[in-house]
Amino acid sequence: MAEKIVTESNNNPTIDGFHLVIEALKLNDIHTIFGLPGIPITDLTRMAQAEGMRVISFRHEQHAGNAAAAAGFLTQKPGICLTVSAPGFLNGLTSLANATVNCFPMILISGSSEREIVDLQQGDYEEMDQLAIAKPLCKAAYRVLHAQDIGVGIARAIRSAVSGRPGGVYLDFPAKLFSQTMDALDGRQSLIKVVDPAPRQIPAADAVQRALDLLKSAKRPLILLGKGAAYAQADADILSLVEKTGIPYLPMSMAKGLLPDTHPQSASAARSYVLAEADVVMLVGARLNWLLSHGKGKTWGAPNAKQFIQIDIEPKEIDSNVAIAAPLIGDIGSCVSALLAGMGSNWTKPPLEWTKGIFERKEKNLSKMAATLALNPSPMNFHSALAVVRNMVAARPDIMVINEGANTLDFTRSIVDMYEPRKRLDVGTWGIMGIGMGFAVAAAVVTNKPVIAIEGDSAFGFSGMEIETICRYNLPVCVVVFNNNGVYGGMDVNTSGGNDVAPTVFVKGARYDKIIEAFGGVGVHATNPHELSVALHEAISSGRPTLINAVIDESAGTESGRITKLNPQAASKT
Ligand code: ADP
Question: Distances in Å between the alpha carbon of 426 and those of 28, 238, 404, 471, 548?
Answer without folding.
Answer: 28, 22, 6, 22, 19
